[in-house]
UniProtKB/TrEMBL annotation:
Cross-referenced PANTHER family: IRON-SULFUR CLUSTER-BINDING PROTEIN, IRON-SULFUR CLUSTER-BINDING PROTEIN-RELATED
Regions that span the bilayer: 6-26, 33-51, 57-79
Biological source species: Caldithrix abyssi DSM 13497
Domain 4Fe-4S ferredoxin-type as annotated: residue spans: 337-367
Domain of life per record: Bacteria
Keywords linked to the UniProt accession: Iron, Iron-sulfur, Membrane, Metal-binding, Transmembrane, Transmembrane helix
Molecular function per GO: iron-sulfur cluster binding; metal ion binding
Protein name as annotated: Reductive dehalogenase
Keyword Cell membrane annotated: no
InterPro entries to which the protein is assigned, alphabetical: 4Fe4S_Fe-S-bd, 4Fe4S_Fe_S_CS
């Protein structure tokens, strides 16, 4: 009987697909998801096998519920259906440049009692009380911090210190002879070379004024105005190891951050030196020595969209990346910013990072307009203050984000569906909560 065979085949497919998902989850060290997929595999395939063995009890109602409804459901999920997203406003071009002196890492470098310290808080009295509060805490990578670990903290310090060795080499001394290279050829070569060197994604954009900080905050001369010296920017991402991020906010996370800042720094300096040998100006923007706001450059280079937590959301790894940037006058073929309303819509519905943030630094509300544009504005002071308590750079928001899952066939399929279908977005969000937990705690360490 044909219907008996159909039930048998569908049951086998359901069982195999869910067992495959369980296997992937166990490999990802997601045991809760793995166990649930195993339960689903037996639960959802059993009725099909039952009716395949006992065809005499199959009725029209059973066929509708077990074959027609699921088939319709799959068709609905596969269709490009996203009416609401079209109305979502895209991020706007910033009208104001960030002053690097205001970011937390610059404020952290101010020495109490120094002339620079006094001058900064004279000009920003509202920040003094806030900054005094985190200055009383142990601080990043401090042995008195909550998540201190002698090995991980020392290793992270070693990686951050090694990035600093690159600082004298962020700028090139271009060769006298300028080699003439087709922009498309240079672009393809750089993309291929960086990818083979470990970059996850690479993009190219025209360098805009709003990509640059207005004034220096971490490098001398402090407070000097920053001008646009190059026409192009190359942005790339490097992947943060999922297993290490899963421990967030404990000490392995800051080691992983430090290691990826080092990798991004090494790639950026290597690229800068290469461009110099071609006879062109270039500057690497690496940890502790930036003149650009990396997520804005990376977004405009087509590497992703800005999400609720204020980070770049890449299509394959979400926010689980670090960014490197090189600015240059080497002529390049540029990519385009690829606005992704599906990410903005997903972030509007999800709010998982906001709920999980121990510092309550991520907003629950929708994006707001300010001088920097339409965006979710993070409370960087609250975030940094928490870092000073725990001694790590936390990254809990990155850990819980549904876009942070590994780039494999299972999560790739989900990403493809949620990009084009609003029903899939709702379903993916609910399933993420069920499989990985809504208040996903960092793994024990
Ligand atoms: S956790 Fe959710 S709301 Fe936060 S950035 Fe990721 S998708 Fe957006
Ligand atoms: S790093 Fe931690 S404290 Fe900062 S925004 Fe993310 S979750 Fe919140």
């Amino acid at each position: 009987m044909l219907v008996q065979w159909i039930f048998g085949i569908v049951g086998s497919l359901v069982f195999a697909a869910l067992l495959f998902a369980a296997g992937i989850s166990f490999r990802e060290d997601e045991s809760r998801a793995g166990r649930l997929f195993m339960v689903f595999a037996f639960l959802f395939s059993t009725p099909y096998f039952l009716f395949a063995l006992k065809p005499e009890i199959i009725s029209t109602l059973i066929i509708v519920f077990l074959l027609i409804f699921p088939l319709l459901g799959i068709i609905v999920l596969l269709l490009p259906y996203d009416p609401a997203s079209k109305k979502i406003a895209l991020s706007t071009t910033p009208t104001l440049r960030y002053d690097e002196r205001d970011i937390m890492f610059s404020r952290r470098r101010l020495k109490p009692g120094s002339e620079r310290f006094e001058a900064y808080y004279r000009n920003h009295p509202q920040k003094k009380k806030i900054d005094d509060a985190w200055r009383r805490k142990p601080g990043l990578l401090n042995p008195k911090a909550r998540f201190y670990h002698p090995l991980y903290f020392s290793a992270a310090e070693a990686s951050f210190d090694t990035v600093e060795y690159f600082h004298p080499h962020v700028q090139t001394n271009p060769s006298a002879e300028k080699k003439v290279i087709e922009p498309t050829v240079a672009t393809a070569f750089i993309k291929d070379w960086l990818t083979r060197s470990g970059a996850h994604s690479v993009g190219f954009t025209l360098l805009r004024d709003y990509h640059l900080y207005s004034h220096r905050g971490r490098q001398e001369p402090y407070g000097a105005e920053i001008y646009r010296e190059h026409e192009f920017a190359i942005a790339f991402t490097v992947e943060m190891n999922k297993t290490m991020v899963d421990f967030a906010p404990k000490s392995p996370t800051i080691l992983e951050s430090a290691d990826q800042y080092l990798r991004a720094g090494m790639l950026a300096v290597k690229l800068t030196q290469f461009i110099g040998r071609l006879g062109y100006e270039a500057r690497a923007h690496i940890d502790g020595n930036y003149q650009v706001v990396c997520p804005l450059v990376a977004r405009d280079a087509g590497l992703g969209e800005l999400g609720r937590m204020g980070l770049l959301m890449t299509p394959e790894l979400g926010p689980r990346v670090r960014i490197g940037v090189v600015t240059t006058d080497l002529p390049l073929a540029t990519d385009r910013y690829q606005p992704d309303r599906s990410v903005i819509d997903f972030c509007r519905k999800c709010k998982k990072c906001a709920e999980s943030c121990p510092a309550k630094a991520i907003p629950y509300e929708d994006r707001q307009y300010d001088a920097v544009g339409l965006r979710w504005k993070i409370n960087h002071e609250a975030c940094f203050s928490y870092w000073c308590t725990v001694g790590t750079d936390c990254a809990r928001c990155i850990k819980v984000c549904p876009y942070s899952h590994p780039d494999n066939i299972m999560h790739g399929l989900v990403r493809t569906l949620i990009k084009r279908n609003v029903v899939a977005r709702y379903l993916a969000l609910k399933m993420d909560d069920v499989l990985y937990g809504r208040f996903n705690r960092g793994k024990n360490f």
